Amino acid sequence: MEEWREQFLNYLNVERNLSPNTLSSYARDLKILQNYLLNKGINSWGMVSRREIEDFLLERREKGINPSSLARELVAIKMFFRFLLQEGFIKEDPTAVLETPRLWKKLPPSLSIEEVKRFLGSARPNNALAFRDRVCLELLYATGMRVSELAILKIEDVNLEAGFVRCHGKGDRERIVPIGNTALRYLRNYLTEIRPKLVKENSGQFIFLSRLGKRISRQSIWKIIKKYALKANLDKKVGPHTLRHSFATHLLERGADLRVVQEMLGHANISTTQIYTHINKERLKEVHRRFHPRP
Question: pTM of the prediction?
Fold first, then answer.
């Protein structure tokens, strides 16, 4: 088993020219599978069936391996058995019909509407920096923009009259997203009354500034999120994109079109947005009750 594994890794290195990090990951993934099979009394890759692969992945999942790592392991395994088939070592690929199970994808963590209210309300705007923090949180939830997009936002990116913000997303893609009235009110007050107090000579046109007048960093925004999540005493784990996920979830729960939400989130592929449709099964039941002729 070890010899064929080494041949495969050499093939990836020489003919596929994969990066050292990828090679290291694939080598580790296949070694874990190899040890699992040996413990089951299977000492040849030719003895492996689809059932063994499925059982292996299930065991890995039960051990708490995250979905992205599981997906990578499956990619490595499928490539390996395809290689064995091409080399004539096996006559049938046990992974040929295996697909990465969508159900293994972790649903993005999101907050309920009440939890969002508590979260935002915990940032009491009683000084300049606290006011800035509140505007950051309000804008993240109102637009669904990424933390990295918020950090580089400039004054020219905001149209207060029309109520829109221009986001600079991944791959230099730009998109226009509307701002809700509440967030717009906070943002307008911040720009006219609070930001001038933070501006220094080197501030430039960035909207959100630090105590020293520099552009606020992505890491600083993440610290702001953690700070107020703690103050709000939320039971759920809150991450950098929690408000973004909540934004998408709440729009879809209230009937927003998936394509529109995709556009506002800046997803290149709608399949990325579709994960949010799995979150609220109760809404599906309600739609079924309302519109099916025999509820």
Answer: 0.64
